[in-house]
């Protein structure tokens, strides 16, 4: 473990049971700046993940509505039907759908300590009390700053929280968040026997933890919150864990990666080509999509956070429609100019699109771009269909029938005329109606119908029996 420097020791508080509302206020549960996930295996809709917070979508929900729809029969101490069973949430926030690449804000670090054996519900609270006493002694010995509070999960395990004022999930802060998690996990490695640290859950910044006040599906016990510890600043927690040097080195590394290019004389710059006109095939349709996105975000200077992942994804899909071999290479160039992901993040974001060839309906793509651009591109707007009255339909059908008949008569007349001229040139004699019919592949009656039509050719002989 990273050796912690000698610092004035922090006084450990007396933790006491508190209302779930106190926990919600500490972590701004109900009022995230962006969105956080609500998760349950037994939601009545069959879906598992719901979003809580600010999102331009009908998919957002609130905690009360979510709890009401996660009802099931629970044995253990309840032995009855209950709401809010097996409810989880994400302590950190996201720009949109909860996944690592969409992380927007860090609000806490945590340690998830699980029980290794199933314990009878009547013994759970006693075990939780024993565990927290051991945990506090170990953390005090290793000079770890006190946790803000802890949640007893209802099965014998606990979740320790170090909550701080929200910080942006920049790349540097992501690495620092993981460094904090590593130190906290390593400091508690001596916990053995009945308990173990879930290292995966404790290191997953986009993971979910049990909601205080919700019911454990096996024991029927509520997840309880115990508070009393300090709420930190992120920098303050870094200082207590001696991570200042790592923070400074990461910042310096970022500055060194910035390459300042010399100003290129305007005279050497190639002249901009005039914007090409688009055709009606699929490739031109996707090309217009690529150009629309680039023009829009160049005017803004860059793609704003919260829209970067969706922009990169749809650009990659569009570029693949043009050329699969060069799609990622071209996306990297656009990313360097406008988006700003690392190569690793960009590769992970486009992983599914590399194996799946996505096709979008016009309306679906229009909605996608509207979410990114805040307007719907004109070329993707569907013209509203005008419903005609029955009289208008009949008039149009009548006109179409007349136009078709006129065109057919004209083409037949031209055929008869051309065949007549051919036979006249071939034989030097005026052909008969039967000869024209046989050469043209028409019926004799059809030829007779057009025999006396005034056409631009040698005058037809008087009709005679054939």
TrEMBL record:
CDD domains: AE_Prim_S_like. It comes from the Bacteria. This is Replication protein.
């Amino acid at each position: 473990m990273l050796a912690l420097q000698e610092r004035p020791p922090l006084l450990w508080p007396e933790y006491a049971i508190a209302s779930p509302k106190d926990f919600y206020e500490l972590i701004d549960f109900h009022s995230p700046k962006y969105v956080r996930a609500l998760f349950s295996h037994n939601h009545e809709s069959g879906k598992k993940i719901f979003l809580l917070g600010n999102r331009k979508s009908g998919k957002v929900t609130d905690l009360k509505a979510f709890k009401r729809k996660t009802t099931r029969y629970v044995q253990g101490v309840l032995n009855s039907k209950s709401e809010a069973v097996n409810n989880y949430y994400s302590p950190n926030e996201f720009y949109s759908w909860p996944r690592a690449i969409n992380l927007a804000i860090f609000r806490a670090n945590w340690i998830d300590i699980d029980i290794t054996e199933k314990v009878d519900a009547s013994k759970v609270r006693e075990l939780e009390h024993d565990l927290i006493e051991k945990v506090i002694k170990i953390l005090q010995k290793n000079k770890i700053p006190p946790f803000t509070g802890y949640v007893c999960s209802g099965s014998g395990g606990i979740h320790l929280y170090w909550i701080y004022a929200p910080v942006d999930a920049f790349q540097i802060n992501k690495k620092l968040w993981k460094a904090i998690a590593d130190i906290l996990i390593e400091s508690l490695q001596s916990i053995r026997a009945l308990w173990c640290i879930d290292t995966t859950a404790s290191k997953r910044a986009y993971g979910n933890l049990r909601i205080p006040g919700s019911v454990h599906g096996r024991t029927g016990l509520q997840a309880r919150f115990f508070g009393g510890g300090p709420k930190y600043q992120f920098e303050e927690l870094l200082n207590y864990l001696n991570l200042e040097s790592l923070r400074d080195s990461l910042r310096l590394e970022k500055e060194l990666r910035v390459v300042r290019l010399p100003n290129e004389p305007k005279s050497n710059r190639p002249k901009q080509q005039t914007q090409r006109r688009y055709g009606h095939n699929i490739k031109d349709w996707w090309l217009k999509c690529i150009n629309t996105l680039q023009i829009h975000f160049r005017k803004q200077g860059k793609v704003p956070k919260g829209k970067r992942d969706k922009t990169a994804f749809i650009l990659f899909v569009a570029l693949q429609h043009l050329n699969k071999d060069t799609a990622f290479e071209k996306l990297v160039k656009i990313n360097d100019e406008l988006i700003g992901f690392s190569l690793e993040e960009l590769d992970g974001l486009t992983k599914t699109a590399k194996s799946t060839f996505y096709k979008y309906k016009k309306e679906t793509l229009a909605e996608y771009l509207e979410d990114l651009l805040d307007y719907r591109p004109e070329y993707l707007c569907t013209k509203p269909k005008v419903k005609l009255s029955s009289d208008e339909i009949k008039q149009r059908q009548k006109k179409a029938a007349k136009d078709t008949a006129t065109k057919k008569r004209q083409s037949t007349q031209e055929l008869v005329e051309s065949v007549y001229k051919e036979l006249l040139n071939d034989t030097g004699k005026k052909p008969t109606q039967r000869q024209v019919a046989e050469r043209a592949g028409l019926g004799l009656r059809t030829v007779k119908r057009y025999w006396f039509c005034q056409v631009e050719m040698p005058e037809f002989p008087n009709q005679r029996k054939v």
